[in-house]
Design goal:
single chain; mainly alpha; Arc Repressor Mutant, subunit A; two-stranded parallel ribbon; two-stranded antiparallel ribbon; 4 helices; 8% strand
Length: 97
């Protein structure tokens, strides 16, 4: 996905996705696909993950996969950050709670 691609409001992908992620509140968790859809790019869940992997300064720990699983290579840090915000995490997955 390139920065030239724009949503229906004329906002480029990176800007729109960053705005959605930056708008998450402590304790709020979203799936990659939810971020993509809210940004105006439904079906671009993988591109959201790519953006997060190359970005700094975003609350990346609030974004999980559709099944609630955490990032495999960073489960401990993501768990720590989510729990600090009051999110229930069990065995590397966000649970209702």
């Amino acid at each position: 996905m390139t920065a030239e691609r724009r949503n229906d409001d004329g906002v480029d992908f990176d800007t729109a996705v960053r705005a959605v992620i930056e708008g998450t509140e402590p304790g709020e968790v979203m799936a990659y696909g939810e971020v993509a859809a809210e940004a105006g790019f439904p079906g671009a869940a993988r591109a959201v993950g790519t953006l997060l992997s190359r970005s700094t300064g975003l609350p990346w720990w609030r974004i999980v996969n559709a099944a609630g699983r955490l990032i495999p290579h960073n489960v401990e840090e993501q768990t720590r950050r989510l729990r600090a915000e009051g999110v229930n995490v069990v065995d590397g997955r966000v649970r209702p709670g």
